[in-house]
Amino acid sequence: MRLTATAHRLAARAMPALITSLAPAIAAADTLPAADLTGERVYQEVCSACHGRGVPRAPQLGNRRQWAPLIREGQATLTAHAWVGVRGMPPRGGRADLSLEAFSAGVAHMARSAGAGWQPPDPALLKRIETEVLKREARLKARGGKGG
Fold first, then answer.
1. For residue range 104-141, what is the model confidence (pLDDT) as tens digits?
2. Burial (Cβ within 10 Å: 0-12, 13-18, ≥19) of residue 43
3. 5-142 maps to CATH 1.10.760.10
4. pLDDT, tens digit (0-9, with 9 covering 90-100), for 49-79
5. Most buried residue among 11, 36, 50, 65 by CB atoms closer than 10 A?
6. Which residues contact residue 44 at a Cβ distance below 8 angstroms, ignoring those fewer than 6 apart?
């Protein structure tokens, strides 16, 4: 089903309230055991709340058209921006107890489902993501904390 431009605008306005309403439920979920932090598990336990339920502006799992421009940003950049919060997405997907490594594995899983060759992060990639996180946070702070 295709939404009209008006429906998209209304959905975009409702996004912050929707995320706010989902965040407590996501945060209240059991902490993921370290041994189970595969990208697929992180997706199922955290990301699917938005990326598997048709939430506006949340690219859906496997949708190559929605993921293509994000994949072009590169794994380190996209992961860092999502970690900090971007385009209506709360930081860490609303899951404060999630490690950067686990979060990155979840992002890689979703990108792979849309055709990217991304793998779970190794130490070098995690370092690049951490560097991007610092840059993103500095840019947001300079803009008065406004995301985008």
1. 999 999 999 999 999 999 999 999 999 999 999 999 89
2. buried
3. yes
4. 999 999 999 999 999 999 999 999 999 999 9
5. 50
6. none
Domain ranges of the chain: 5-142
Phi and psi based region of residue 92 (left: phi greater than 0; alpha: psi -120 to 50; beta: remaining): left
What's the whole-model pTM score? 0.75
Are the C-beta atoms of 112 and 118 separated by less than 8 Å?
Answer: yes
Residue 6, CB-side half-sphere exposure with 13 Å CA sphere: 0
CA distance 72 to 75: 8
Q: Which pair of tokens denotes residue 145?
A: 């904390």
